């Protein structure tokens, strides 16, 4: 799915960057960080352009019915947190967007 969003996405490099020899010994937070670092290497270095792709990735995950509380969204949130420090207003909007879209189905189910 990343190759549909990121121009010139090198899937093989991405996978090798994540699943290196250290992977089996990493805890969940360390694995999330490793995926985030690999994603950072694949995305544009300019945060606004990368953030648009993060939005597109999140949209694709939602279309695949991924629950936003699960792993694929963890590394997207970490990416925004880690690399969006100089773009806090934009990061805040995206974080609110993630939470709002997550909460909407819960509110509908409880109504």
Question: How do the strands and helices of this protein lay out in sequence?
Answer:
Elements lengths: L1 H4 L5 H8 L9 H15 L4 H17 L7 H13 L4 H23 L1
Helix pairs in contact: 2-3, 3-5, 4-5, 4-6
Structure in words:
- This protein is mostly helical and 111 residues long.
- The protein has one domain.
- It contains six helices and no strands.
- Helix 2 runs antiparallel to helix 3 and helix 4 packs antiparallel against helix 5.
- The protein is globular, with a radius of gyration of 15 Å.
- 16% of the residues are buried.
- The C terminus is likely disordered.
Name some characteristics of this structure.
single chain, 111 residues, disordered C terminus, globular, mainly alpha
What's the story with the biggest beta sheet?
none
Please tell me the overall pLDDT.
Answer: 80
> How much helix is in the residues?
over 70%
Please count the helical segments: 6
Structural class: mainly alpha
Approximately how much beta-strand content do the residues carry?
A: under 5%
Ends apart, CA distance between termini: 34 Å
Taken together, the total number of domains comes to 1
Radius of gyration: 15 Å
Order of helix and strand elements from N to C terminus: HHHHHH
């Amino acid at each position: 799915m990343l190759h549909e969003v990121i121009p010139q996405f090198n899937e093989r490099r991405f996978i090798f960057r994540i699943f290196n020899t250290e992977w089996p010994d990493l805890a969940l937070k360390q694995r999330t960080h490793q995926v985030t670092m690999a994603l950072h290497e694949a995305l544009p270095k300019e945060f606004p352009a990368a953030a648009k792709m993060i939005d597109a990735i999140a949209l694709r995950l939602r279309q695949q019915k991924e629950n936003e509380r699960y792993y694929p969204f963890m590394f997207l949130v970490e990416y925004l947190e880690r690399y969006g420090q100089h773009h806090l207003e934009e990061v805040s909007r995206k974080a609110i967007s993630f939470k709002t879209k997550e909460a909407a189905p819960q509110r509908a189910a409880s109504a």
